[in-house]
Amino acid sequence: MHLLEDPSGLSPRALAFLDRSAHRQERTGPHVPTELLRVRDRRGRPVPAPLELVIRREGFAQRYGGLRYTVRESHPGAGGERRVSTLEWHHEPGSYAWADPVRGWFFDWWGPRAAHPVRYLVHTDGRVGAESTAGDGVFQELEASMVHRIESHALVDELSAWDRWPGGAAALATARHLDGDGNGLSEVAEASGPGRSWRTSETVAVTEFAPVSPQHPRGRCAWIWYRGEEGRRRVTAAAALAAAGHR
Description:
This protein is 26% helix and 32% strand. It has 247 residues and is of the alpha+beta class. It has a seven-stranded antiparallel beta sheet. It has a five-stranded antiparallel beta sheet with strand order 10-14-13-12-11, with helices on one face. It has a two-stranded antiparallel ribbon with strand order 2-3. A hairpin with a 5-residue loop joins strand 5 and strand 6.
């Protein structure tokens, strides 16, 4: 059953996000059934799509096919003023599938409707990721599942009303000092996994993740949001400790 008909398993935040932003749209082109695809195995030979790939790709088409939603995202603007961008995401299987050099298979899906250098993927083990920017066919995990990705998008959208701290390598050290400032950040379990973690409080929110990269292993970075004077004070203090080299 389609997600918008049966959104069970999602948090109240994600349900509110979908209610505000999501709709379902029929495909403009035909869906090629997975069982008709010829895919490349680990030796590069064209073979019929294996059963595990058929089940996962057709399940994705049934559960998410046609899902559209727009994610709002805040950014630090010139002069420290918050600006908000929007990005529309389309959930539809693409036309390619590959054997993972490690295990299983993965297929592509449409993703954001914008010029983007990343090819988004779903693995037969349920993980959501992207192809390495090295173009080497390596699957790089971004979220543990499609549910985790939707929960992450719901958080980013909700936090568009908050200010965002400048990113970069220093943001990761700042995020670690926020964990130790005595005020506590709580894990958002429904949106967190090995590829991306989320921690929030009443005034600060942090996500740590490994962006798509040609490097192996990938480095990690962080985004930080805050609201109000208390949130700004906490992040400013953590950033000062990080800049001073405190552990």
